[in-house]
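Deadline looming. Please check this record:
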Amino acid sequence: MKAIAKDQLIIMVSQKMRLLRNEYHFTQEKMADIIGISKKTLVQIEKDRMLASWTVVIAICGLFRESDILKMTLGDDPIEIIEAISFENTPLPKQLTGGGKMFWKTIEKQGKFKIQRNIFSNHLRIIDGHGKRWISSYNKDIIQQQFKQLIESGESDAKETQ
C-alpha cells in the first residue's frame, strides 16, 4: 500500500503545480528557485510531461502546507500525509491536531481514542481526547493494532488526568 500511496501523492501534487504556483503569484523562475529545481524541470511538470520527484513533493508539501490548493486536494495538513507514507510502521511523537472536524471522519471510538479517516487521502490516524495525534498510516492493520494496544494499556485514562 505504501508505494501506491506515494505514487498517488506524487501524481496529485505534480498535477497541481501550476495552480499552486499561481496561488502564490510566483513566476516559474521564482517557484523553481524556492523548491530547488530548474525552471525547465518545473515547466515539464506543469505541462504533464514528467512527474515531480518524491523529494520535490516533500518540499512542496512542507513549504506550501498552508496552501488552499494543497489542503483541498489532499485534505487538511499535507505534512501529515507525507508522515503517514514515510513513517508507515513507526509511531511518531504525539502532535496536536485540529481534532478532525473538517477533513476527517471518525470510524471508531473507544475511551478517549478515535480512529479517523481523511476524506480526501483516505489515510488513517489515531487521536486522543485532547486532539493529539498518536500515529498516522495508510495501513489499517497497523492502526487497528496500535488502537488496541492504546486501549488495553490504559493510556487513555492516563492522558486524561494529566
